[in-house]
Design brief:
The chain is of the alpha+beta class and 106 residues long. It has helices at residues 28-34, 53-63, 83-92, and strands spanning 10-17, 42-46, 68-69, 103-104.
């Protein structure tokens, strides 16, 4: 997301972990994001117990500081220029909900 999103449009990326037990999502994840080029953009939000998709998304909404939210599941890969058409549509109608909802700075 970081490499394919204009930096001025990206406020933060929240990774919400729904109490995963996968080793690769352990404490090393925060360490990786704090010591790389992602340090100022990526935050890991851990659920204490499994909450499911919607409650995890709601936790992300509550933790967000942005005006526009885009939800992408872990299997999604964005192309260059993916965000601009979404933001254009939202600018046309701020109440619109698009089917592909990263968290952006507008």
């Amino acid at each position: 997301m970081i490499n394919r999103t204009p930096p001025q449009l990206l406020r933060e990326i929240l990774l919400v972990d729904d109490a995963s037990t996968l080793a690769e999502l352990g404490d090393g994840l925060e360490e990786y994001f704090s010591t790389t080029k992602f340090a100022n953009k990526v935050k890991v939000l851990r659920q204490e117990k499994r909450q499911g998709l919607m409650r995890s998304r709601m936790a992300g909404i509550r933790a967000s500081t942005a005006e526009v939210l885009v939800f992408l599941d872990s299997h999604i890969e964005a192309a260059i220029g993916w965000l601009e058409p979404l933001l254009f549509r939202i600018q046309e109608d701020p109440k619109v909900i698009l089917p592909c909802l990263i968290i952006v700075n507008v």
